[in-house]
Design a protein that fits this description.
Length: about 650
Amino acid sequence: MDYLVKRKTNYNWNELSFPIFEVNVGVGQESTLSPILSALYLLLLLYILEKCLKNLKIPISFISFVDNSLIIAQNKSIVTSNSQLFCSYNILSKLLDKFGLIVEHSKTNIFHFNRSHRVFNPLSLDLSAIGGPIFKPKDLWKYLSFIFDQKLNFHQYIDFYSNKAILTVKCMKLLGNLSRGINPIQKHLLYRCCILPIALYGFQLWFYNKAPLSYHMKILGKMQRRAAIWILGAFKTSLSEEIEAIAGLIPIKYYLQKLAERSQLRSAALSANHLIRLFMNDHSDYHSISNPHSINSLMDHQKSIAKGHLIDSNNKLYRNFPAFSPLHPEFNLGSRITDKFSGRFSFNLASKDKNNKKHLQQLDEMTLQSSSLPNSAIIVTDASIKNDIATSISHIHIHNRPLTKMVHHAVYVTSTKAELFVIRCSINQACGKNNISKIIIISNLIHTVKKIFESSPHPYQLHMTSILQELCQFFDKDQINSIKFWECPSCLNWKLHQVVDKDPKSFNPQPMLLSHISWDYCKKINGNNIINHWKMTFQASDGKGRSFLNLVNSNYEDIKPSYIKGGPWLQAFGYSNFLCTRATRAITNHALIGEYRLRFFPNEDFSCPCGNFPIESRRHVLYDCKRHNGYWNPRRDSLHLVLDC
């Protein structure tokens, strides 16, 4: 739709009338002004349409996206829905005609959703009485690359994106023709960064609690299996669980569960007036006015049968206390502390050298100089976690004043949040002292301290706002007031920090009552639980096959699956395609040796060429065969020793 193109107008002033002349500004559909002008132009039309439908008592919802509109009718009968759509379409066509616009019937579609498990054949919508066509309901509705079917089972949606992901895997094989090619670790990275986002686009539509997922997991599992075979160069007869573990790919079900839980937690980062938050219960504010359309307005029976990602997000945030405050005035441009007091704070970082004597000397000199000044306060902080209880402690040193110790305990928080909390309390104590113009904070988590001055949304904003308000008041008192942050890694064994570091370990608190969980702790514990469940099920599962070779690491501990940095197997041999292929076939017992020929080609010779064993088995090659081992080692199940064979 083009606005103000090929239009004519004239002006009338009392009895004076000017002739009609052309107005052709030329604001086409591709112009950046098009959405703004269309919204202003259609605003009055939508208001009149809503008023007409309300007066006629037609329960129709109307949504407009620039020049694309959506008319929604919800009824138990298709006949009733069609009659309401007919009336709405008739009113809309007449209003558009009065506004000088037309409806493009060729671009108009009708679609019906139905919950019944029977065959669903909806009736057509006949608009011939008002000069329109006869619309036959579509089987699929595509919107924003989302594919909706009539039953909302999203089978076609999964088929489309899984096939698209498999096609991407096939295209990435062309990268192997490069001069250097790509090794398995790079393939693993390409799959996770480029292919999985395609396959799982919009997974929140179909992955939620109580949703039927057998078909989806089957199709996506086939897609990931093909990717694992491509990464490792394994045979197609290899079992999915074993090659996924070797390739460092978490099973697609666990990966979706992890993504879904993080997506549910992400809604807590939205502002309180966001549309999604308005539909959810505000668990943090018990005095807030409930939205009549929120989940809380549903009856208990309705809540028990309601399903969807929004319901899961609402339940997920029930025990989480608030952590975000993205619209706080402290983060506005011009009001940020970095804009007003950029020269009042500084950081002194330590090098990565563990024996950094120069930094130790600087810490000692700074402490001696500052402790002799009556207007300086030295704050040493530390935090530790034991049995899900965080203990944070700080020592405040001021000239000619007794040492001030502060100890805080918190349940279900991360060490980062505990460190920020003790810094917040320490700054509050130091700012409350008289004649203090210089504050020095010494911490071993300097990356945590830097978050105080970040304006981007993160789960520590509530502590940040309190710290920033204290610092702004402190800086406003006098122009010479300043604060410095010093990094003191625990490996330096600095005396003052050692004293603080020992204090939290001396406490052994026990939780007495149920408590809310912090946002970042919930995110961390959810990810750890999923990975631990994967490790446990992999060790006990028969899906990896009876021939899977369980190896140990350099500490003689069983190797457990992981996806971090490609997993333990790819970290050992992922730099070479040739070595990775041979190692994978050895671990899965698909190596081209006598044992393999006995299983698949029994008519061929399967004896070992060394002549000492009738069958060239994997165990014989690793433990006994002198052709591969010039020596005998009792622990041939070590990963590095297997690679040396």
